[in-house]
Amino acid sequence: MKTKLLYHTNSYMYECTAKVVAVDGDDIALDATIFYPGGGGQMADHGVISWENQIYQATVLAMSKRESIVWHTLDCPPPHVGTEIVGTIDWDFRYQMMRTHTALHILGGIIWKEFGVQVTGGQMHPDRARMDFAMENLNKQRIEYIEDKVNEAIEADYPIRVYTLPREKALAIPDLVRTKINLLPANMEEVRIVEIVGLDLQADGGTHVNHTKEVGGIRIIKTENKGRINKRLEIELNDH
Ligand SMILES: [Zn+2]
Predict the structure, then answer these.
(1) What is the pLDDT of residues 218-234, one digit of tens each?
(2) Is 237 within 8 Å of 127 (Cβ atoms)?
(3) Which residues contact 219 (CB under 8 A, 6 or more apart)?
């Protein structure tokens, strides 16, 4: 049993039909879902699941991914196995998340390109995010320079491609090493790649926009020293 991750092939889908394949208390597993369950620094989606022509509607309170199955925790007794449901995500939340997530890729790509330093961590919220870098010097001038470069890249409207590669092929791409691709589970035979063509390449399971211009623009709102060679940058979407 496996949940088809519709958000992996089309992150712009905000509604889908699916079938309940398992029930565990108030949790249901579906054969397919558009709900991102969380992980990799991206928050889980919010939304509703309805069935029997919307006679019943439940709010999705929480999500979890156990092995290849995505579980949705509902706020009421769930439908039986075999029921066809309609899932609808909170699109405003998700789209903000896609834009913020993409902004982090641009930021990581620029810092790698300009300074050759690696990302050491990150966390996203719908309208803002933070990222840590193995960087020694981060002065005001440098921060302004990074912000300008990120906004230039957004304006340049790079296309973003999403595809999968066999594990060995992915491991052979030098650019992927910096994103710690070697930490991927050993049983993962295919690696999902998110590429901002000409700027950034990562092994990644999250949701992103299709073109960098959709991000709109960002501001660096905070910097923090997290150790001698570890710096934190916090960004916010301009139209927040
Ligand atoms: Zn990503």
Answers:
(1) 999 999 999 889 999 99
(2) yes
(3) 147, 235, 236, 238
What local confidence, expressed as pLDDT, does residue 118 receive?
87
CA 236 to centroid of ligand 1, rounded, Å: 16
Region 174-190: mean pLDDT is 71
Each residue's pLDDT tens digit, 31-75: 999 999 999 899 999 999 999 999 999 999 999 999 899 999 999
Retrieve residue 230's tokens: 């570890």
Query: Residue 9 — φ and ψ, nearest 5°?
Result: -100, -30
For helices 140-155 and 91-115, angle between their N-to-C axes, nearest 10 degrees: 120
Centre of ligand 1 to C-alpha 206, Å, is 5
Whole-angstrom Cα distance, residue 62 to residue 76?
13
Q: How far apart are CA 6 and CA 16, in angstroms?
A: 9
Residues with C-beta atoms within 5 A of ion ligand 1:
204, 206
Q: Which long-range contacts (CB under 8 A, 24 or more apart) does 186-189 make?
A: none
104 C-alpha to ligand 1 centroid (Å): 8
The one-letter code for the residue type at 179 is T
Compute the distance from residue 176 Cα to the ligand 1 centre, in Å: 13
